[in-house]
Design brief:
The longest helix has 31 residues, at 86-116. The two termini are 13 Å apart. The chain has helices spanning 5-22, 25-33, 47-76, 86-116, 121-144, 148-156. The chain has one domain (5-162). Helices cover 74% and strands 0% of the residues. α3 packs antiparallel against α4 (86-116).
């Protein structure tokens, strides 16, 4: 059964956006409101800043995905692919969303690097390497997501129209 691929893609992007918006709420709430109850050995000067950073980046990426879901859907499923099999659209949007997740993680980690730069240089350098790695991986995965359906078809041993 074929569904309208672009509508399906936009719905998946919206689900990812909502997940990005709400995923950091529990940890953020604990870090902001339970601080007096946390043992002092687990606190440092940047603990709250790190939590605010991760929450803010995740929230921003989620809102951007919600706002841009139609444009992203149009980029992932062109007009010629509008009636493409659902599996083809699912592979493309899933790959793009994995890339978005890596970009969000990379950005949050890079901001954590900046926050911790003066606190602990060794840990901060770890954040720099991890953040850059996630960011590069995310951009690359997102960039190839609209063409990944050809790889998917090759792996399945079919042409891309029958994926």
């Amino acid at each position: 059964m074929k569904l309208q691929s672009r509508n399906f893609v936009e719905a998946l992007i919206a689900v990812m956006a909502i997940w990005l918006i709400v995923r950091e709420i529990p940890e953020f709430a604990v870090s902001q409101f339970a601080l007096p109850f946390v043992d002092a050995q687990f606190q440092n000067a940047n603990w709250k800043a790190n939590e605010i950073t991760h929450f803010s980046v995740s929230l921003l990426m989620g809102v951007l995905l919600l706002v841009l879901r139609r444009r992203l859907g149009a980029w992932l499923v062109s007009d010629s692919d509008i009636d493409a099999p659902l599996a083809t659209s699912l592979v493309a949007v899933s790959t793009a969303l994995i890339g978005v997740y890596f970009v969000a993680s990379g950005l949050a980690t890079l901001v954590t690097f900046l926050v911790n730069l003066n606190y602990d240089r060794e840990i901060s350098m770890h954040y720099l390497g991890t953040g850059v790695g996630f960011l590069i991986a995310g951009v690359l995965v997102f960039a190839v997501s609209s063409n990944v359906t050809q790889l998917w078809a090759a792996l399945r041993g079919k042409n891309s129209d029958a994926a």
